[in-house]
Design goal:
Strand content: under 5%
Strand order of the largest sheet: 1-2
Order of helices and strands: HEEHHH
Distance between the termini: 24 Å
Largest sheet: 2 strands, antiparallel
Oligomer: single chain
Keywords: Membrane, Signal, Transmembrane, Transmembrane helix
Number of helices: 4
Number of strands: 2
Helix content: over 70%
Number of domains: 1
């Protein structure tokens, strides 16, 4: 009986836990690089390099896999989406053009869709593996 009561609580706790991990990963990979690079031809890139974003995505696969493989798909999706949206909003809010809101919206929708797809695949593969073991 007691184990049955703890299951919903652990599922709910996975949301803020994944949000916190996501915020920390954003800070580690993207939080320190705030400068745009101006090339000799006048083009501007940045502030992030591709390897930083790839590192963030690969880092976030670990907690998403952990949560989704344990049946916390909603926590994996919502926690990661909330964390990325909050981090992007805070990091980009000093943009004087006001277009940061568009970027934050794109991060929110993109992370929601991609994390939902990845979590669904992980959970279904995990369930299929459990069925073949039994």
């Amino acid at each position: 009986m007691r184990r049955g009561l703890l299951k919903p609580v652990s599922r709910l706790l996975s949301i803020p836990a994944l949000a916190a991990v996501t915020l920390a990963a954003w800070a580690a990979w993207l939080g320190w690089d705030q400068h745009y690079d101006v090339h000799p031809d006048g083009s501007v890139t940045g502030p992030y390099e591709a390897w930083q974003v790839i590192g963030l995505v690969l880092t976030l696969l670990v907690p998403v896999y952990w949560a989704a493989s344990r049946g916390h798909v909603v926590g994996a999706v919502l926690g990661t989406t909330v964390g990325l949206t909050a981090a992007a909003s805070y990091d980009w809010s000093d943009d004087s053009s006001g277009l940061f809101a568009v970027g934050v919206g794109m991060v929110m929708v993109g992370s929601l869709v991609v994390t939902a797809a990845v979590s669904a695949v992980i959970a279904s593969v995990k369930r299929a593996g459990q069925r073949t073991e039994a």
